[in-house]
Amino acid sequence: MTAKIILSTDPGIDDAMAIIFLSKLNTLEAIWTTMGNNTIENVTNNATKILELMNKTEIPIIRG
Questions:
Q1: What is the pLDDT of residue 37?
Q2: 27: closest CA among 50, 12, 7?
């Protein structure tokens, strides 16, 4: 059985690697962006760009 993950993240370089890893494993159910190292707008844009580059745009992004 494969676990499904909803990732709460503020995508900088470290979290970008986590998104890439989890999306390649097909375990990423959704991404919930949170303000941390940057503004909510920037981290949401980062998550969107990462999923676009990975061809995983079917994964929903929830702006938190």
A1: 83
A2: 7
* Interval 20-28 mean pLDDT: 93
Question: Degrees (nearest 5) of the Cα angle 34, 40, 46?
Answer: 90
Q: Which domain holds residue 57?
A: 5-63
Tally of domains in the chain: 1
What is the arithmetic mean of pLDDT over 42-53? Answer: 96
Cα-flanking dihedrals φ and ψ of residue 37, to 5°?
-80, -5
Distance CA 51, CA 48 (A): 5
Angle between helix 13-24 and helix 40-53 axes, rounded to 10 deg: 40
Going across the sheet that includes 5-9, the strands are: 5-9, 28-33, 61-63
Helix residue ranges per DSSP H, the chain: 13-24, 40-53
